[in-house]
Amino acid sequence: MIDKAEHPPVPQAFAELGIRPSILRALAELKYTEPTDIQRMLIPRALTGVDILGQARTGTGKTAAFAIPLLQRMSPGIATQGIILVPTRELAVQVHAEIERIGQYTPIRAVAVYGGQKIMAQMKFLRHGPEILVGTPGRAIDLLDRRIVNLENVRYVVLDEVDRMLDIGFRDDIRNILSRVRSIRRQLQRSDEGDESRGDESRSAEMPETQAPAAEAPALASNQANAAVPAGAPAGDSVQTIFVSATISGDIEKLGRQYMHERVEKLVVPGTDERPTVASVSQFYVSAQPWDKYRCMLALLRQENPDLAIVFCRTKRGAEKLARKLHADGIECREIHGNLDQTKREKVMKNFRTGKFDVLIATDLASRGIDVADISHIINYDVPEDPEVYVHRVGRTARMGAKGTAFTLVSKDQGPELTKIESLINMIIPPATVEGFTPSPTPADWIEEFPGEATEPSKPIVSRFERPYGAGATSPAAPVDSADPSAEPAKHVGPPRTIGSKIPVNRRHKRRR
Fold first, then answer.
1. Which helix (H) or strand (E) holds 316?
2. CB atoms < 10 A from the CB of 200, how many?
3. Which of 262, 361, 428, 484 is packed most tightly, with the most Cβ within 10 A?
4. Contact in structure between 111 and 125 (CB atoms under 8 Å)
5. Of the candidates 408, 493, 410, which has an alpha carbon nearest to the alpha carbon of residue 447?
6. Structural domain count, the chain
7. Residue 165, SS3 per DSSP
8. What is the CATH number of the domain that holds 388?
């Protein structure tokens, strides 16, 4: 029977990269016509099986760049051939959806596993033996410890947002997971042994004798090469690793190479090192003192009237307070942060994508997990402490060639933070004026607020430098003479203590994403 359905023309620019027809058909339906720079550089090299460090600006198609080679090189029917680790639940959902779209005409299937959902529901999908596992480190470790998933068949490992994955917060979890992959486990053992030998002069002196078994290495390599492995898999039981991000520092690159083979190709899109943000983002800063920040942002939203906007705050509490105030002033918005349960987070993102509200108030949870094509504005209500976080925040707009605008509210004492950002992105961010906003003098009753917390001049909060945290605590503003028995103990000021704060540290459960 002849298929009379009309199909879009095959994107020839992708076909020239060596991509198979089943994937090209999906790319045509997704209206992928021309590969981006990172896709043009990474896809052909990944198809050859080499290990890759890829660096490109946010919103330039890195997910498709590593997904296409994985879909093409895997063998159907062999469970967990590839594992993709990401830092946030939202990014896990996004990467999984992209793989499913690109691989819709292939027999390769993926499953996303992440915290906040019942593990039994995810086990139902794992029973079918999907070839690709996309997940956050915490949930991946849970599945491995329960022996629901094993990594014996893994031939492909991807770390998306590798700079975040290998920082101090995730480093131990990543080592825990990747050490269960045979080839990487041996590499880590050799690395550890090498570190010990370099620190021991006596062992170093005996090195020529201990290297005697090396003569057997060619035979061992030959046996591995002839071992039965999935078609298209790397030779022997080696593992192909692909690590990508918009920002890769020297320290992160050094850490990443511990999990990779000697032959590593670092692919950097030209200009990314000099300017990691895309040129189609118009970036500005607005001078606003802490007591004026809310009025300034409200005037900015009314001036710009964005189609879709994300406002970034530094803290969860600050995001909640800001959302409440905007609601009270007639701005339709929702907040997203780590304290929301997964069902609410997914509902917020669904409603944001479908345009049911225009402004999303987010912590940096969202700076690496949102891929919404129509985001027109980014507003940094709080200047990020890490300038690299700024790059990922701004990267939520102007994706895949679109245009966008980013504003950052900066107070007078935050000049050094702005300078660090400008040094990283290698450009001077110009100032902008906001119609209807006039700076006001310092209120007489103003007291320094916590970072990221929207407050009103009439309701100041106590500075972190003036806040006693228990009986006998002292502060520069209100010293207590402990030698005076009549002195009253300082009262607790600030957020109420939680039940968890009364539990000894060694009895608290470790939180995982």
1. helix 316-328
2. 11
3. 361
4. yes
5. 493
6. 3
7. helix
8. 3.40.50.300
